[in-house]
Amino acid sequence: MIFDGKIWDPTNMLDITKLRLAWWVKSKWLDHNTSITNFIRAPSSTLARTSRKQTKSKVSWECPPIGWLKFNIDGAVRSCPGHLGIGGVLQDETGAIKLIFSKKASWGDANLAEVLAVRKAMVLFATSSWVNSNNIIIESDSKNVVSWVFNPSKALWSSNETADSLAKSGVNKTHDL
What we know:
alpha+beta; 4-stranded mixed beta sheet; 34% helix; 5 helices; Nucleotidyltransferase, domain 5
């Protein structure tokens, strides 16, 4: 290769490329401890970390306060959309299990499964003997459902009023539209 009147040997070009790449890696990943020399000798044997493993923080279950019961609920879906399953466990302030449920639900996505699990927990509590003597905490791992419970106007269905009214009117129809 001839550049600027000079003949460049392919080996020299490769060495220059490796050197520049090594310096780039050093500047990009400051905590990368491979030497420039090792990188030039065997670039494929040196790996730069492109992402750090995120460790899940372990959250332990906490008992509800005295006079309260806690329903831990969850929803599951096989594929999206797919068959849904919901489950929950109701415990008192000592951690004693008062009630459990696990059932097949309808067809849909993960958000629907979580909403159905919340609904089932509320229905079970509302029809139980504990409703008159205890308050309820419903705990879910679904950020969407928790935000919808506290701010229903932000739920996905709030922007779907036309389809919602069509669905409601469809309940009473004898023939499809």
